[in-house]
Amino acid sequence: MQQLVSAVILTHNRKNLVIRAIESVFAQTYTNLECIVVDDASDDGTKELLSARKDIQYIYISKEESRGGNYARNVGIKAAKGKYVAMLDDDDYWLPTKIEKQIAFIEEKGCGLVYCGMRPEYVHKDGSITYADWPPLDEGQGDMSAKILSRIYLITSGILVRRELLEKVGGFDIEVRYWQEYELSIRLAQLTEFYAVNECLYVYRIDEQDKNKLTNKFDAWKDSAHYIHQKHKALYAKLPLAAKIDASRLYNGEACSRAKKAGLTLTALYHKIICVILKRVRYIIK
Hints:
Layout: E1 5-11, H1 15-26, E2 33-40, H2 46-50, E3 57-61, H3 69-79, E4 84-89, E5 93-94, H4 98-109, E6 113-123, E7 129-131, E8 160-162, H5 163-169, H6 180-189, E9 194-207, H7 219-231, H8 233-237, H9 241-261, H10 265-284
Parallel strand pairs: 1-2, 1-4, 2-3, 6-9
Antiparallel strand pairs: 4-8, 5-9, 6-7, 6-8
Helix pairs in contact: 9-10
């Protein structure tokens, strides 16, 4: 008997893309699924488009109630009835065998979380679209309680997790607007091992012209990153020197990339120089 899986889709003002995400849920080869769509105060016609659908559980959060994406995700998790929860952002979509393969793996390993590789969908300025495959990292398996601090291993749309664990850690931190899955994974990794299906099973949209895409912003991301480091400073403090350097490289590398996208040339150069220095130091103490 198949265990129920709750697919939780978060959407905001992407009425065309969210349909693609929903269709990818119902196209799964794993059939015991419920689809919960949490609409975080959309005003582009999403509400009118989705509220009449009978095949999804549609939850609308008004502008007065809206408290950000993580609050909306937690609303979806609270509504979930499945043994497992799989998150999906509205601009991403799953490939057909994603849930089937993740369920088989999580039950085989007896762990609390399984993720997978992703297929980035690059939307270029001229409107053309190209794809690539990013398989999971080989070392991102097993006890991740320390390793999770110094590298990004998983993205929200690739996660399948036991609902009881999400509830135990309190879901997503509503104070975190950026790197939300990174912060959640830190807490989950203290409770369970992680494993990854070694395939690219979902498509992750990268559109640098999308004003709703959080990865296209810098200052607010920096505030979130500092908040995360303060929240988990006791865990970072326990890392050996090499891992501390890796954690710093993660932050500065991401800062360089985001500053560059935001047009902050000098800021990007500053963080790039720090990355170069850290890389050399890391090589010395390897």
